[in-house]
Fold this protein.
Amino acid sequence: MGALFSQTGPTAFVERSQLNAFHLAVEEINATGGVAGREVVPVTYDAQSDPTRFSQLAEHMLDEDRASLLIGCYMTNTRQAVVPVVERRRALLAYAAPYEGFEYSPNVIYGGAVPNQHILPLARYLMRHVGKRFYLVGTRYTFPVESNRVMMTLVAEQSGDVLSERYVKLDARRSELAQIVDDIKKKKPDVVFSTVVGEAAALFYELCRDARVTETTTIASLTITEAELALMPRGLAEGHLTAATYFQSIDSPENRRFVASYTARFGAEQPLNAMAETAYGLTHMVLAAVGRCNSVEPDAVRVELARSSFAAPQGEVRLDPDNSHFYLWPRIGRAEADGQFRILEETPFAVKPDPYLINHSLDDWDTLPPVAPAVLAG
Amino acid sequence: MLQALRDIRSVKVLVVHPKDRERNELVDHIRRIGCRVEAIWPPQDGIPPETDIVFVLFRQDALTTALLKALSERSSQVTLIGIVEFESPGVIEAVVRAGTSAVITKPIRAFGLLTSMIVAHSLSHKDKIYTDRIQKLEAKLSGLKRLEKAKAILMSAKSMTEEEAYETIRSRAMTKRVTMDTVCMAIIEAKELGL
């Protein structure tokens, strides 16, 4: 199984956690007899956060290394670079990150959340508990632009205001971010919705803290995970809100086991996060399905995946065979000083993926059953 | 947001294509996009009411020709998306003549379908608006021509000034509760009968 992750580059710190989780899952599978009695051999190279390299490596792994299937990619442009490679070879890619939706390739299993599974619950929480004046800032690429489009629709629906929509480069410079933070300070929004990814995220928080933005404003995001918090000085992002399908702090037997194995294998200082959990669960599910149907043919694996669910660390998940995405568990977490998230809200059931939803509405969400009180108290 | 994007989930789609794996993939993806969709084969003259978008496989056979003719004669506009399996000049000509708003090619893939549907729907909507507007303008133009003619008749027969002729037609329309155009047509008719 080829693993396409970056060990260097601006997104490497997240992708390393995905790679670790992949290795952990493969080791667990091999320890219990492998796939249909065969050992799983991981193949991996450093993809260097570079889309061209992602596609070259995918070709190399499938053609030269004879990988049977692939897992990986984090940013959308890296996935888009690999999709044609697997489509031409009728191979399978397991994609282990949340993204903006609007994709269906018969050769991809999409493991992460789409907007109706993360932006919707976040918007709902923010406008109920924080406020309706929003400031949007993100890295200039598909995921932030599309996320902001959805957020703007939802804010407008609730008669809120979007004060500004700003973008920076992946390797944004301090001065560029500082100018945005100045503007935020001036406009005093209730919420800054940040989709700044990579190493610039830490810099953004530092500038916000120095400008004392967080005294009047809540920063919310989809991409700030335990891995990003670990890159920041302790407590820097305290109070920040993130919507994700997984937090390391989830209190369940499956997650306690996952966290214990992961920290035993990679060390307690290695943070877990939603992307790592997705890589871990997806590796287990896809390889189990390959074993059951004794094939790596994408259609056969997809049919097999839809036949059973998996007790993932985030909860029971299963594939929606209509669109090749997963039923997942959206949660809202608050960043605490210790680098972990305290879960403020979670859905009482796994939410169906709707990757082609254009018109998001909080009304749809509000018809869902209420949040379990026991979870809110946590 | 673009109207066609906002409305996509209320769109009703018909797929005219033989039953095979590719058709299944097309229908599955239209469903994934969130539209109601039905598939038929062979082509029939009539299509279900309230159909907004029709995907038609362009084959040079009598049934396809009959369907395209039925579509072009349909009063309420449907958006036509061609499915093309050969690029022969004959097929291309048929695609253009049928008033196709977008084309997808075989083998059919999911990627690009949403864009084709939105572009086609927007184009045919725009087309309908223009057609309606042209019809209205044409009606208005011939109305103006008739007004000119009716005024000329009154001016010569009754030695009226242009303003008097206009005022006569206007007040007649008011008291009879009909349009000025109706009055003009009556005047022209009477003149033609030699009254």
About this structure: The interface with chain B takes residues 102-106, 153, 322-323, 354-359 of chain A (CB under 8 Å). The radius of gyration of chain A is 20 Å.
